[in-house]
Design a protein that fits this description.
With 480 residues, the chain is an alpha+beta fold. It has 19 helices and eight strands. It folds into two domains: 269 residues, 2-methylcitrate dehydratase PrpD (Orthogonal Bundle); 123 residues, 60s Ribosomal Protein L30, Chain: A (2-Layer Sandwich), CATH 3.30.1330. 48% of the residues lie in helices and 7% in strands.
Length: 480
């Protein structure tokens, strides 16, 4: 399915290398200078919430998804050195392969974090690399927080600068995310500014992520996260050993922006760099599917509960989306339970019939359910060009539900629940994490792991940070 043109992002200008700042140098200097002692409390707190969410999503994904299991099996087959935890079985492998496998697992259940202004799943693109490298180096929790903050900033700032035009053709999590992973690892390795520029240079040359997987919902999507993390580890490790990389990879005339976006807003990279920390803008998923559909689900659930709507009452549902969102999730007949995560028709049907769209929704049985199929046939998707002007800073959706008695209920919102401008309390993310972790460890172990992550600044050795995940569980269950 083609991704339709929606480039209306404010502040964009055609790429001109003569107007570009030394973005690579500025970001490298920022990464080198990040210090836990100088981070504001909101950035530290946001980094800890991001860590909790990623660890839980990755642990669950490693045990309950086909993609997580395959990635872990490949990592085990490499028989690499004992450096970092492989979440799938609690064993250990090299930082490179742990980053790869755990990142794939964290993207597989579609409950990962996201930063909408840059359109990047920041945790899955960077956290696997940061955690694996931190374990390899046995750094303390404060060093890990520094790396996490730096990684989020680098990828989100680059991503925001080219968000809409780049996202038309590339999956930003795989492309831009590679920079975040390299920055986090470079920080943990204590690289100097020159080495960090090399790391970013070699990360940029590895950046990849094409949209063709959307046609049938191929596993390739989660490979993007795995490779972003793996390549970030590789890029920083090479730089540490004197392996040079393009020192102007971001702004160069044949660099990342010039090659992968026709337009750019350089101010998004440099604005308040080192003073304002993008980790505080991280968003979190409440529903287990593509973020493009979350405003629709929020509004459908709100109206379903407010008016006590039942499937048999529904005559028609009209969903208006941005052109980009419609091109991504308008799928009236998804070919698999994974592809259903990119079907707004399936999302709406589950929201009305089951009043939640969690992990339990995306099963073969649910997809074949005649009742769900009947509701899906009543959902019509409309691409609304008027919504495009705000994208990607706004992800506007409007849902109109018409019932058999002629009543019409309309809901509209610009941002889903869990975004920094429409936040949920940190306790909600902690509850989400405990629920996911209980799929793979005992409830008391899940609670202990969440507590430790929320107090990670007290951890003295990252290698001993996740002991609960180093014990293979007797069974895996899918709870609701």
């Amino acid at each position: 399915m083609a991704i339709a043109s929606t480039v209306q992002q404010p502040g964009l200008a055609p790429f001109d290398a003569r107007c570009a700042p030394e973005a690579t140098r500025l970001l490298a200097e920022y990464v080198a200078g990040v210090s836990y002692a100088r981070l504001p409390p909101d950035a530290i707190g946001a980094a800890k919430v991001a860590l909790v969410d990623w660890v839980a999503v990755a642990a669950a994904g490693s045990r309950i998804t086909h993609q997580g299991k395959v990635a872990a099996a490949l990592a085990r087959a490499e028989a690499a050195r004992d450096e970092a935890t492989l979440f799938n079985d609690g064993g250990a492998t090299s930082a490179t392969w742990a980053a790869f496998a755990n990142a794939i697992a964290s993207h597989a259940i579609e409950l990962d974090d996201i930063h909408l202004p840059s359109i990047i799943h920041g945790g899955v693109a960077m956290m696997g690399a940061a955690v694996a490298m931190a374990q390899k180096l046995r750094v303390d929790g404060r060093r890990l927080i520094e790396a996490v903050v730096a990684g989020f900033d680098v990828q989100y700032r680059i991503g925001e600068a080219i968000a809409a035009p780049h996202y038309e053709r590339y999956h930003s999590t795989g492309t831009v995310g590679t920079f975040g992973a390299a920055a986090a690892c470079a920080k943990l390795l204590n690289l100097d500014v020159r080495q960090i520029r090399w790391a970013l240079g070699n990360a940029g040359s590895q950046a990849a992520g094409l949209w063709q997987y959307l046609k049938v919902g191929d596993d390739t999507k989660v490979l993007h996260a795995g490779k972003a993390c793996m390549n970030g580890v590789l890029a920083a490790s090479l730089a540490q050993r004197g392996f040079t990389g393009s020192i102007d990879i971001i702004e160069g005339s044949r660099g990342f922006v010039a090659t992968m976006s026709p337009a750019v807003d350089w101010g998004r990279i440099t604005d308040r760099l080192g003073v304002y920390f993008k980790v505080t803008e991280n968003g979190y998923k409440i529903h287990a599917c593509c973020r493009h559909g979350h405003v629709t689900i929020d509004e459908t659930l709100r109206m379903t509960l407010a008016y006590d709507l039942r499937p048999e009452q529904i005559r028609q549902v009209v969903v208006k989306l941005t052109t980009n969102s419609a091109g991504t999730i308008d799928d009236p007949d998804p070919a698999s339970e994974y592809k259903a995560k990119f079907s707004v028709q399936f999302m709406v049907a589950n929201a009305i019939a089951h009043r939640r769209v969690g992990l339990e929704a995306f099963t073969r049985e649910r997809l074949a359910d005649p009742g769900i199929r009947a509701l899906m046939s009543k959902v019509r998707v409309v691409a609304e060009p008027h919504f495009d002007a705000g994208f990607p800073d706004k992800w506007t959706a409007e849902v109109s539900i018409e019932t058999e008695d002629g009543a019409r209920h309309i809901g509209r919102a610009d941002m889903p629940r869990g975004e920094w401008v429409n936040p949920v309390p940190a306790s909600v993310i902690e509850d989400k994490a405990r629920d996911l972790l209980k799929l793979v460890v005992a409830p008391e172990a899940a609670a202990a792991l969440v507590r430790r992550m929320m107090g990670v600044e007290k951890v003295t050795d990252a290698r001993s940070m996740l002991p609960e995940l180093e014990v293979t569980p007797a069974r895996v269950r899918l709870g609701t």
